[in-house]
């Protein structure tokens, strides 16, 4: 298969420098200054007359996402509506910051100062973290195949610097938190860079190379990559069966992070498992041609896990992490897995394959077993597993199913903090009837299409070794999220969520 020749840029990095200052926004040496307006409130004090006139005219207003600008004192002033003061929280701040970023870029601004709102229920740290995330995520562009953009003069695509202006005395408290937010958002952008690469570039081997490069560049991470022969030797018959239809070598990617300063007392070995199908045609159960190109995003769970372990290590969080990715293509060929075939997973369970397009759960089944065998004490898998979750939840929530209430609650809380929200769906014994096989112990895609998202999780529950486990179905949130900081293409969904989960376990 032909791999495109592109400029070397393995790991994406933000070009935006971050500064946190306690002096007033108007005193900053920024080309553009963004100020939030609350609906029904008087404007903040200290604004230039031209800005006050814009507000008085009604062009600038406090309605959420309203945006206006003017020039005063030799700078661009951006007025961003934040809505009602009592409703301002992290996600609204994230959106407002992304909108300010976009307008600053349109106005050829290279340095943006954003004034932190005051007098809200949310803390300055919560709003500041969201602000930095919104700008960092909005600054991402997929430019891997646009090597000539700077030569063409299109250089106004990124900010050079972001200045966060807060209240007096908050600088030291905010700086560490905002720098940590930037690390997590940059890791999400790294995941987006992987997601957006086409299938002829990001093969399983290329994804494994990225994992090795991550381990080589971030202290505390080690990586091991095993191919088809080792997958078969480990008894991972479900994973191997999916991979047998492709000429591309599959990759079992295992990464470990061990904190240099030791683990926090009582913290578990956190196992993160990512579905990493680098292109999913559906196999013999071929998908419809419309929008099949989007199936390069079927590795989004794996990208999220890679981004998360990278961020956790860069932040030096005192928790040990084990990451497992099953990387393969799912293609039709003369040797491909067929409907009706029976395969045996690593834990010995036999699986009747009713539909080869339900391949992700086959890959994840063996990867969950592998993580448990390596000593993981708590399991979270992330996957674009079912289209049904998009029908149920759209792009507002990802689906959460878990066998442990405490883990589920931690994940939901982490989702609220990160803006990557989860909605818990039930796992009930009655669903077990739906995954029972006719000719084998389990069926990967039972007839009837009832509760498809829950059925996928119920199937996976048979491979968790009775450990605390949660399944995140991110199919509705992984790409084309439709938010100002991640409107089109890969969203990096799950990276910041998993970092918050790890932080809560320390």
Reconstruct the topology from this structure:
Blueprint: E1 17-21, E2 32-38, H1 49-57, E3 67-72, E4 75-83, H2 90-106, E5 111-115, H3 124-138, E6 161-165, H4 171-196, H5 204-217, E7 221-226, H6 228-233, H7 237-243, E8 251-257, E9 270-280, H8 300-314, E10 321-330, E11 342-344, E12 350-352, H9 360-373, E13 378-383, H10 388-393, E14 398-402, H11 405-418, E15 422-424, H12 432-435, E16 442-443, H13 452-460, E17 469-473, H14 495-505
Helix pairs in contact: 2-3, 3-4, 4-8, 7-9, 8-14, 9-13, 11-14
Name the CATH architecture of the largest domain: 3-Layer(aba) Sandwich
Q: If you compute it from the alpha carbons, what radius of gyration comes out, rounded to the nearest whole angstrom?
A: 24 Å
CATH topology of the largest domain: Aminopeptidase
Q: Which runs of at least 5 residues are low in confidence (pLDDT < 50)?
A: 1-10
Count the domains: 2
The description of the largest β-sheet is: 8 strands, mixed
CATH class of the largest domain: Alpha Beta
The dominant shape is elongated
The CATH superfamily of the largest domain is identified as Zn peptidases
Number of strands: 17
Structural class: alpha/beta
- Number of DSSP helical runs: 14
Q: Give me the side-by-side strand order of the main sheet.
A: 7-8-10-9-13-17-14-15
For the record, give the distance between the C-alpha atoms at the N and C termini, rounded to a whole number: 44 Å
Overall pLDDT score: 92
Helix content: 25-40%
User: Roughly what fraction of the amino acids lie in strands?
Assistant: 15-25%
């Amino acid at each position: 298969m032909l791999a495109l020749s592109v400029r070397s840029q393995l790991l994406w990095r933000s070009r935006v420098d971050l500064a946190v200052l306690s002096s007033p926004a108007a005193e900053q040496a920024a080309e553009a200054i963004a100020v939030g307006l609350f609906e029904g409130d008087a404007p903040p004090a200290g604004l230039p007359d031209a800005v006050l006139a814009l507000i008085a005219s009604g062009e600038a207003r406090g309605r959420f996402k309203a945006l206006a600008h003017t020039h005063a004192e030799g700078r661009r002033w951006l007025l961003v509506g934040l809505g009602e003061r009592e409703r301002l929280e992290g996600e609204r701040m994230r959106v407002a910051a992304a909108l300010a970023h976009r307008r600053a870029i349109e106005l050829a601004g290279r340095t943006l100062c954003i004034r932190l709102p005051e007098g809200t229920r949310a803390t300055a740290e919560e709003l500041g973290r969201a602000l930095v995330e919104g700008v960092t995520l909005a600054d991402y562009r997929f430019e891997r195949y646009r090597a000539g953009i700077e030569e063409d003069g299109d250089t106004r695509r990124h900010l050079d610097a972001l200045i966060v202006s807060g209240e007096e005395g908050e600088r030291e408290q905010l700086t560490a938190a905002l720098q940590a937010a930037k690390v997590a958002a940059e890791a999400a952008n790294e995941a987006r860079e992987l997601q957006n690469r086409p299938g002829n570039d990001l093969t399983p081997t290329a994804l494994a190379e990225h994992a090795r490069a991550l381990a080589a560049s971030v202290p505390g991470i080690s990586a091991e990559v095993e191919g088809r022969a080792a997958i078969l030797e480990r008894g991972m018959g479900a994973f191997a069966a999916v991979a047998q239809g492709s000429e591309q070598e599959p990759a079992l990617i295992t990464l470990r992070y061990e904190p240099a300063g030791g683990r926090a007392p009582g913290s578990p070995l956190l196992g993160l498992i990512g579905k990493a199908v680098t292109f999913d045609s559906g196999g013999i159960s071929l998908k419809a041609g419309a929008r099949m190109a989007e199936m390069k995003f079927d590795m989004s769970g794996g990208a999220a896990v890679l981004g998360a372990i990278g961020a956790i290590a860069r932040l030096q969080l005192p928790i040990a992490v084990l990451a497992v990715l099953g990387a393969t293509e799912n293609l039709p060929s003369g040797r491909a897995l067929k409907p009706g075939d029976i395969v045996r997973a690593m834990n010995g369970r036999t699986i009747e394959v009713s539909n080869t397009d339900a391949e992700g759960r086959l890959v994840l089944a063996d990867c969950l077993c592998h993580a448990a065998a390596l000593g993981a004490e708590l399991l979270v898998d992330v996957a674009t597993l079912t289209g049904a979750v998009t029908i149920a939840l759209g792009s507002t929530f990802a689906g959460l199913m878990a066998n442990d209430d405490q883990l589920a609650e931690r994940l939901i809380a982490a989702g609220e903090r990160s803006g990557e929200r989860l909605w818990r769906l039930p796992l009930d014994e009655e669903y077990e009837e739906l995954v029972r096989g006719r000719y084998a112990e389990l069926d990967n895609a039972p007839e009837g299409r009832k509760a498809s998202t829950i059925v996928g999780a119920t199937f996976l529950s048979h491979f968790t070794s009775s450990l605390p486990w949660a399944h995140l179905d991110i199919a509705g949130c992984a790409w084309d999220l439709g938010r100002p900081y991640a409107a089109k293409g890969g969203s990096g969904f799950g990276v910041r969520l998993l970092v918050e989960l790890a932080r809560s376990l320390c």
